Amino acid sequence: MRFEYPIVFPLNQITYVGEDDSQFFTEVHGRRFNALSQRYMLPADEEEIRRSELQHRMLQFLFGGKNYVGPVPQVLIPQDGRERCRVLDLGTGGGCWAIDMADEFPEAEVIGVDLAPIQPREVPENCTFELCDLDQWYLPYPSGHFDVIHARSMHTGIENYTRLLHEIARMLRPGGLVILIEPDSEPIADGKSATELTRCGQPSGMRGWFALWEAYRQCLRDKGVDVNVPPELANLVATTGAFDKIVSQEGNIPIGFWPKDPVALSIGQLAWMNYDIMLPALKPLFLSAGMRDWEAKKLIEEAHQDLYYPLVRPSARLHIVHAFKKA
Ligand SMILES: C[S@@+](CC[C@H](N)C(=O)[O-])C[C@H]1O[C@@H](n2cnc3c(N)ncnc32)[C@H](O)[C@@H]1O
C-alpha cells in the first residue's frame, strides 16, 4: 500500500502527501474543500468522490463501455525508443479514469493531477497521483512529455482555459492526443436550452431547476470562470493553432427515468444520481457568494423538487473534443 504521493508546486518544489493529509483540506460552510484553489468551489469529500465515480460510470455507458474517445490505443504505442508511454489526467477527481486507464494500458505510465488528495492510496503500480493547481501560467511537467492528455469536467476551476490549452499543447509530444470533455452548465428541457426557451418566450417547465443553474452560472462568472468554455471547446482548441484533426462531438445526457431505450435509461439514472448529490454540494458556493442561508436552501430544495418530480424531460449537453498536437 502506498501512503505517499507527490505534491508538485511550480518550480519543481516537491513535497509528499503522507498519511495525515489534513493540511490539503479546508472547511467551508460545513463541507470539506481543497485548500489550493478558491476558484474551484465543489467539495472534496466522500460525497464528492461518490459523485465522481457515478459520473465516470455514466460516461463509460455513453462511450459504449470505453474510457475514451479517439484512437488512444494507437497513440499509446511507444515512440522513438522510449520504454513507456505517458498519460496525464487533469482534474482527476476521485481518480477512477486514471486507474481504469492504468489497468487497461499496463505498459503506460498514468499520472492524475488534482487540487485535493481524494484519490485511493492503493493504486496500480503504473498510476500516480499528484497535487497541483492547473490554473496557472506554467505547469510543472516537461515539454513534449505526454502521449495522451485528458481533462474532463474541470473547466469550472480554470480562469483562462485557453492558457491551459497552450500548456496542454506544450506538454504533449508531436502527434500526441488531447481529449477534452465538458458538460454545459446551461440546463435543457425537452431538448431546448434555457437560451433557446427564452428566445421563443417559452417557460422551461422546471422553474426551480433552471433558477438553480442560472445562480450557479452567475457564481462561476463571479469567480472568473468562462461558462461558455463547453460550447466553445472545439473553437478554443482550433484557435491555439497547435492542434489538427480536431473532432468535436455533442451528446445530450438524459437526466432521470424518462428514456425508453435501456442504455439511455441507465445513463439517465446515473446522471440523476449525480445531480441528486451535486445539488446540496452547491450550497457552500451560494453562501460564499453572499446568498442567505434560507435563500440557498430554497433554491436547492426547489431544484431538487423538479429533479424528483419533473414536468418535462431534463437533460444536459456534453461537449467532447479530441485532437492531435501538430507534428
Ligand atoms: C467534477 S470533478 C471531475 C473529476 C474527473 N475528471 C471526472 O471526470 O470524473 C472536477 C475535478 O477537477 C479538479 N480541478 C478543478 N480545477 C482544478 C485546478 N485548477 N487544478 C487542478 N484540479 C482542478 C477538482 O478538484 C475536481 O476534483
Automatic annotation (TrEMBL):
<keyword id="KW-0489">Methyltransferase</keyword>
<dbReference type="InterPro" id="IPR029063">
    <property type="entry name" value="SAM-dependent_MTases_sf"/>
</dbReference>
<dbReference type="GO" id="GO:0008168">
    <property type="term" value="F:methyltransferase activity"/>
</dbReference>
<protein>
    <submittedName>
        <fullName>S-adenosyl-L-methionine-dependent methyltransferase</fullName>
    </submittedName>
</protein>
<dbReference type="GO" id="GO:0032259">
    <property type="term" value="P:methylation"/>
</dbReference>
<keyword id="KW-0808">Transferase</keyword>
<dbReference type="Pfam" id="PF13489">
    <property type="entry name" value="Methyltransf_23"/>
</dbReference>
